[in-house]
Specification:
The complex is a heterodimer of chains A (266) and B (483).
Chain A: H1 14-17, H2 20-36, H3 40-56, H4 61-85, E1 91-95, E2 98-101, H5 102-128, H6 131-140, H7 145-173, H8 183-214, H9 241-264
Antiparallel strand pairs in A: 1-2
Helix pairs in contact in A: 2-5, 2-9, 3-5, 4-5, 6-7, 7-8
Chain B: E1 2-10, E2 22-31, E3 36-41, H1 47-54, E4 65-72, E5 75-76, E6 87-90, H2 103-113, H3 118-131, H4 147-159, E7 165-169, H5 177-191, E8 196-201, H6 204-207, E9 212-217, E10 220-221, E11 225-226, H7 227-232, H8 234-239, H9 249-253, E12 262-272, E13 278-288, E14 292-296, H10 303-308, E15 318-323, E16 326-327, H11 333-336, E17 340-343, H12 356-366, H13 372-382, H14 398-410, E18 416-420, H15 428-443, E19 447-451, H16 455-458, E20 463-468, E21 471-476, H17 478-482
Parallel strand pairs in B: 3-8, 3-9, 6-7, 7-8, 14-19, 14-20, 17-18, 18-19
Antiparallel strand pairs in B: 1-2, 1-4, 4-5, 9-10, 9-11, 12-13, 12-15, 15-16, 20-21
Helix pairs in contact in B: 2-3, 2-4, 3-4, 4-5, 12-13, 12-14, 13-14
Classes of the chains: A mainly alpha (266), B alpha/beta (483).
Chain lengths: 266, 483
């Protein structure tokens, strides 16, 4: 059976307890700062700080290493291509029209670290916030509950669809199906699998509709024509003193970065 | 509290060429507050349809033609949606009704939908989890639970909403013996409470929880009768396909001398999944051609993992697997399908063709076997599927879907059959068909390797291999291993 697409690492830490709305604000400010601050060394300090923050709040190194692995292809692509698109300064190597320059390398490094800082800010949110709290945060910020539920169900069913694909492919292989030949032929061979997955996904969605209806989704409160009862929320979000202090700290950081950018112009 | 009077229902036909057949025919019963009723019937007899109609889901979400009366707690469920919390339904496939990230969130979801004041939700979640023995898994993901735990969780989530009527559709369906025992224990506490209860089943142990039982056959119901009386009439239960005739066993017991040539050989096979979980630790086995081997062991012992090595769905991390003397390394699963017929668990997840005929013909065509049409026709007839040949497999009941997967296998006529839990969720009629086919294959000298929790079946094997923690812990004649 598949499991949900979930990055949450269950721990009891300050960052885990922080209100997810504050963490969302932190991620937003962090990503903005990553793009406002042009210096490679500042990006490096941010990245180091994020690692220390996550490790200090109980996120194991293997989880951080996993994120590095996920980002590795993107970083390699940036470092391999970007220097040739933004050449500036003295060339180090020149092959025909392609010039590798110190400036180009520096730009690529900056872009790569920005991508990493953004990924680790988002990671800090997802590793320390369970799915329910995350959806709850979006709902409290104004997202309709049904949208939040849809988001949560999507996270639930993406791996289920992947699992369905694997199951159908295995069932067909066990009855003699072999995908071989060129790319076009392979695509044609995969068509029956894809059709089966689409049908399976539609059936899954039908069953889910029944399951939600059976548990009272949109049913009236007491009789015909009555509106559904007002949903309540177990363990609703509440901003505590620490949350407010952190929120103020993040906002001050944003102001400081903006001021620095305005005054010194990067 | 729960009333059905002259209730008829027919699903919309799947296409213009299909006749509209009635899934429920003139069903009538009355249930007072606090009473319990068991509805016994074979697969496809209309049990799930009855539950869905009474829960107000059918025909509202499925379409179809309905007539008669269906009333729950005074609400005409055919005309109006009953208020939240009036009726609770446990679906046959519990996993489909679980959609929250953790066990406790799953139970809380319905209480939130009811508008329960937040300070009360925690206590009610706690009570439901305690009642169904789930406190120790409260923070786990529902999809990481065993089948029995998922069923109990779905039950806890429905029960927590304190419905006035509880409908349980095949509460023991699709579970292994351990899961069945867990759920049965949970149901016993429910049947002793004052809740109005209707449960559908083909298992006598579950029916025994209710004082009265009605029998459904092809959508038509008998009147409610004392359960003890219904269970005493075994001949009638066999006739309606609920139980299987015991006379089927002798054919499986026929002594066939296996050849000395190995059909399957495994040498020091180790296997670890990509997440690092090691499932097999140095398994060595030699299975001669024509031998019937039952593989038993607790959940997570590595039984399915072992079986998946026979047709290359999994490859050993270390060690070698030989089929008919040839190493499987370098041969695709598609190539091995000529020699090894493989049956998966959960038939509904592996049916992919537009019609039953196409489903059964898929492997025959992929392997370019001779007499394709004849093979398909014979396999359909073998499993009583000829009438369903042009029906989409997805709309069939669990038992008929299982029959389709067996027919797809039968059409290939492979010298080795590797079957993963073929008997789970089968009613008596389907058991009878499965046993008759296995006996026939056995007599034809086919090598049978069956992963099973059904000890009655394992006792008929030539040899039983017991696995635990990815190791062979016992290997011998059934009398030696099963005791």
């Amino acid at each position: 059976m598949s499991v949900a697409l979930d990055f949450y690492v269950h721990r009891e830490s300050w960052l885990h307890r922080l209100d997810p709305r504050v963490k969302l604000w932190g991620v937003l400010v962090g990503c903005v700062a990553a793009f406002l601050l042009p210096s490679l060394s500042v990006q490096g300090v941010l990245l180091l700080g994020l690692h220390l923050l996550l490790l200090g709040n109980g996120i194991p190194w293997r989880v951080l290493r996993g994120l590095w692995r996920q980002m590795a292809v993107l970083i390699v692509l940036i470092m391999a291509l970007q220097p040739f698109f933004t050449p500036s300064g003295d060339p180090l190597v020149a092959v025909g029209p392609l010039r590798l320059t110190v400036g180009g390398l520096s730009q690529a490094g900056l872009l790569a670290t920005r991508a990493l800082v953004t990924a680790f800010f988002i990671g800090a949110l997802l590793f320390t916030t369970d799915q329910r709290s995350l959806v709850q945060a979006f709902v409290r910020l104004g997202l309709p509950y049904t949208w939040g539920l849809t988001f949560s169900l999507t996270l639930r069913f993406l791996p289920a669809i992947q699992q369905l694909f694997m199951t159908v492919r295995e069932a067909q292989a066990a009855r003699g199906w072999v995908a071989e030949g060129n790319l076009f032929r392979r695509f044609r061979e995969y068509l029956p699998v894809l059709v089966a997955v689409i049908i399976g996904t539609l059936r899954m969605s039908d069953r889910l509709t029944l399951a939600l209806a059976a548990r009272g989704m949109a049913a009236p409160a007491s009789g015909e024509g009555d509106r559904p009862p007002q949903r309540t929320v177990w363990r609703d979000l509440h901003m505590r003193r620490t949350d407010w202090m952190t929120w103020i700290g993040i906002t001050l950081a944003l102001l400081a970065v903006s001021f620095w950018r305005l005054v010194f112009g990067g | 509290m729960l009333v059905a009077e002259h209730l008829h229902f027919a699903y919309p036909p799947p296409g213009p060429d299909f006749p509209q057949t009635e899934a429920l025919r003139d069903v009538t019963f009355h249930l007072e507050t606090g009473e319990a009723l068991a509805v016994m019937g074979a697969s496809g007899s209309g049990k799930s349809t009855l539950c869905h109609v009474l829960a107000g889901l059918t025909p509202r979400y499925t379409g179809g033609r309905v007539s008669g009366v269906a009333r729950v707690a005074g609400y005409d469920v055919l005309a109006t949606v009953p208020p939240t919390g009036t009726v609770g339904l446990l679906f046959q496939d519990a996993a489909t009704q679980l959609f929250n990230p953790t066990v406790e969130d799953e139970v809380a979801w319905g209480l939130e939908a009811l508008g329960t004041p937040p300070p009360h939700i925690g206590a009610q979640v706690e009570e439901a989890l305690a009642r169904f023995g789930l406190l120790d898994v409260r923070t786990r993901s529902p999809w990481a639970l065993s089948g029995g735990q998922q069923k109990r969780l779905a039950l806890a989530a429905v029960w927590a909403m304190r419905p006035r009527v509880l409908l349980l559709d095949e509460p023991l369906g699709g579970l292994d013996p351990q899961g069945r025992a867990e759920v049965l224990a949970a149901l016993e506490t429910l049947s002793q409470s004052s809740i109005t209860l209707l449960l559908t089943t083909f298992r006598p142990q579950a029916a025994a929880l209710a004082p009265t039982t009605l029998v459904l056959a092809d959508g038509a119901a008998t009147s409610p009768t004392p359960t003890a009386e219904v269970l005493r009439d075994e001949a009638r239960l066999v006739e309606t396909g609920i139980l299987y005739p015991p006379k089927l066993w002798p054919a499986m017991e026929a002594h066939i001398v296996p050849s000395t040539t190995p059909a399957i050989a495994m040498q020091d096979v180790h296997f670890a999944y990509t997440d690092g979980h090691a499932a097999l630790h140095g398994v060595s086995l030699e299975i001669p051609q024509g031998q019937f081997v039952a593989i038993i062991g607790p959940n997570g012992a590595g039984k399915s993992t072992l079986l998946r090595h026979f047709n290359g769905l999994l490859r050993p991390t270390r060690g070698t697997v030989y089929i008919h003397g040839k190493d499987v390394a370098g041969r695709t699963t598609g190539e091995l399908a000529r020699e090894v017929g493989f049956l998966f668990q959960r038939p509904e997840q592996q049916l992919f063709a537009a019609t039953v005929y196409e489903e059964v013909a898929f492997g025959v065509r992929a392997l370019r076997l001779a007499d394709a049409a004849g093979r398909v026709e014979r396999a359909l007839a073998r499993f009583a599927l000829t009438a369903f040949a042009q029906t989409p497999p997805s709309i069939l009941s669990y038992g008929v879907q299982r029959a389709v997967t067996l027919a797809a296998l039968a059409a290939l006529d492979t010298p080795i059959l590797a079957l993963d839990e073929p008997a789970v969720g089968l009613d008596g009629r389907e058991w009878a068909r499965l046993l008759a086919w296995l006996a026939e294959r056995r007599a034809a000298g086919v090598t049978l390797v069956i992963v099973t929790h059904e000890m009655e079946l394992a006792a008929r094997a030539d040899r039983v291999v017991a696995l635990a923690d990815g190791r062979v812990v016992a290997d011998g004649a059934p009398a030696e291993v099963l005791g």
